[in-house]
């Protein structure tokens, strides 16, 4: 099998064949594009999500906190606690594990979330550190936003710049191999993108504003995330390539190695659909968050306008980060 997330059809079949219990107190449950489940606890709802870090060698603890908290934020609620599982290979040292936990502690302080528990072990089952986290959030009954809520004619909004996570991982893990593409100053700037990887602030703002759908842009990049939103919502989309917010540094990296930035892991940018796009853009900018309208939700297919051409969007087979890794080996 290829490295990366399972093919969407295989994943759907896997979920559908192994989901026999459906409880009434689960309001939003697992499915294509739904990164969180929402459980009814009376006047409050519990929002839960889980994800591992496997594609980065550095900043694993930091990334583990934010990719999971970002999923909770995509429901428009505040994360309150995290459980951490660390699987370490035999050559790992106690200092390595301590460094991971120090990163996790530093990032949870910034977000005011508590480390609730977890599990740590050394195992021959892995050849590098694997960090998997589960985050719990809390919100008012019926208020959590789902991926599947997008409506036809919604504006499609992305916050900040795309490829924040992917660019940072490349700069941190492959610094010596990309110094012929980026200057020393550009590499340091690319590394710093990780400081902007949280979307908790915009998620909570959008939850209070009232949007139809949100999705944290992770593996598979913008096109993967948007395809998941459309698939979950049963509609399509039309986006414009020239409206994509991508930094010049990211463009240089992608051009040099022939990878598509729209299919590169992009935690740090929230994908939002709403019928009040301009008002939301103004609100986000008033809170110091840049945002761009890149298109609209439409009928039953997804297309991208590239200059005068209209291209139908297919689900990415795997993230471009894995493609780059093979090129840089």
UniProtKB/TrEMBL annotation:
Residues 152-300 form the PurM-like C-terminal domain. CDD domains: PurM-like1. Residues 33-137 form the PurM-like N-terminal domain. Belongs to the HypE family. This is Hydrogenase expression/formation protein HypE.
């Amino acid at each position: 099998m290829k490295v990366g997330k399972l093919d969407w059809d295989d994943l759907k079949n896997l979920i559908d064949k192994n989901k026999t219990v459906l409880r009434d107190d689960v309001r939003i449950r697992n499915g294509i594009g739904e990164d969180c489940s929402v459980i009814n606890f009376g006047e409050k709802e519990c929002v839960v999500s889980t994800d591992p870090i496997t594609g980065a060698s550095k900043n694993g603890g930091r990334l583990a906190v934010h990719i999971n908290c970002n999923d909770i934020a995509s429901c428009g609620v505040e994360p309150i606690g995290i459980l951490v599982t660390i699987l370490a290979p035999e050559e790992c040292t106690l200092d390595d594990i301590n460094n991971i936990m120090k990163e996790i502690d530093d990032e949870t302080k910034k977000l005011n979330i508590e480390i609730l528990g977890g599990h740590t072990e050394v195992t021959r089952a892995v050849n590098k550190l694997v960090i998997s986290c589960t985050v719990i959030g809390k919100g008012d009954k019926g208020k959590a936003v789902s991926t599947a809520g997008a409506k036809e004619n919604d504006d499609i909004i992305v916050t900040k710049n795309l490829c924040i996570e992917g660019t940072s991982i490349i700069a941190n893990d492959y610094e010596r191999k990309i110094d012929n593409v980026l200057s020393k100053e550009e590499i340091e700037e690319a590394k710093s993108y990780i400081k902007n990887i949280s979307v908790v602030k915009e998620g909570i703002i959008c939850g209070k504003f009232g949007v139809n759908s949100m999705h944290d842009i992770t593996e598979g990049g913008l096109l993967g995330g948007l395809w998941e939103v459309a698939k979950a919502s049963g509609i399509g989309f039309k986006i414009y390539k020239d409206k994509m917010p991508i930094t010049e540094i990211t463009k240089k990296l992608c051009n040099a190695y022939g990878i598509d930035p729209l299919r590169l892991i992009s935690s740090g940018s929230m994908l939002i659909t709403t019928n009040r796009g301009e008002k939301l853009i103004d609100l986000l900018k008033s809170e110091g968050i840049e945002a761009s309208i890149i298109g609209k939700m439409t009928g039953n297919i997804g297309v991208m306008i590239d200059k005068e051409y209209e291209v139908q969007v297919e689900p990415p087979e795997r993230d471009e980060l894995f493609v780059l890794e093979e090129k840089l080996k």
